[in-house]
Write a structure and sequence with these properties.
With 220 residues, the protein is α+β, with helices and mostly antiparallel strands. It has 2 domains: 4-77 and 167-184, no CATH class; 84-149. Helix content is 52%, strand content 18%. The protein contains 8 helices and 4 strands, in the order ααβββααααβαα. It has helices at residues 4-17, 24-31, 84-91, 103-119, 121-132, 144-151, 168-197, 200-216; strands spanning 37-46, 49-59, 65-75, 152-158. Strands 1-2-3-4 form a 4-stranded antiparallel beta sheet. Strand 2 and strand 3 (65-75) form a beta hairpin. Helix 4 (103-119) packs antiparallel against helix 5.
């Protein structure tokens, strides 16, 4: 029998994180099987991006359950140009459902994706990434690791007794700032590569201009 007091405690904890309904039905649907541990997945709209959350629960010695941590993954919007008709078809499919329930719809769009790949492989790959990432179809995305690094960033947040937990809105802001930092670092690396690839004569000329500018400003 489900411990209603435990359910109430977990609901209050999850509401404090930012889940309005406390994920009550998801909690009950897992706890009724009395597992040693379980995960709940949830997606928050963060238009135009998406925030995917995985909450991890473990059974304690008293037989109740506690949420020990959650993982937040920010997926930036994947923009696709061209193939609008195919994009609309893929958008109409509930990709989070088991493939066994939507195989007819999948079969139709995969055939079109294969045709598109013959003439525009990049657009086909972006469509797969946009709709298949973090769904049961994710394993069918080619070059998955490279795709994820282009559009995703994640962080795990633990719960500690006596400490105020990080809410999902705070997690979103944290990941958004990390994403901006990541993009800034990537741009700086690209600029450094471009600088190093230029002829030595150009480098010497630029160094001379910098030296003259510092001299005019009284720095040397």
């Amino acid at each position: 029998m489900i411990n209603e007091k435990n359910i109430a405690i977990l609901k209050a904890q999850l509401k404090a994180l930012g889940f309005e309904d406390g994920l009550e039905m998801e909690l009950r649907g897992n706890i009724c099987f009395t597992p040693d541990r379980f995960d709940i997945r949830h997606r928050e709209a963060a238009e135009p991006d998406a925030l995917d959350l995985l909450l991890h629960f473990e059974k304690d010695p008293a037989g109740g359950y506690t949420c020990t941590y959650y993982e937040a993954l920010l997926r930036k919007q994947i923009q696709v140009t061209g193939a609008k008709a195919l994009e609309d078809k893929m958008n109409a499919i509930q990709w989070m459902l088991p493939p066994s329930r939507i195989w007819r719809e999948i079969d139709a769009v995969v055939s079109e994706l294969q045709k598109l790949s013959e003439t525009d492989e990049r657009t086909a790959s972006l469509l797969k990434a946009r709709f298949w990432l973090n769904t049961p179809a994710e394993k069918w995305i080619p070059n998955l690791s490279a795709i994820k690094s282009q559009f995703e960033i994640s962080q795990r947040f633990y719960f500690f007794e006596g400490e105020i937990p990080i809410t999902i809105q705070e997690a979103f802001r944290f990941l958004a700032m990390r994403w901006l930092e990541k993009q800034h670092t990537a741009r700086k690396k690209e600029e450094t590569k471009e600088e190093e690839s230029k002829p030595d004569s150009d480098k010497k000329h630029r160094l001379l201009l910098k030296k003259k500018a510092r001299k005019r400003n009284g720095l040397i």
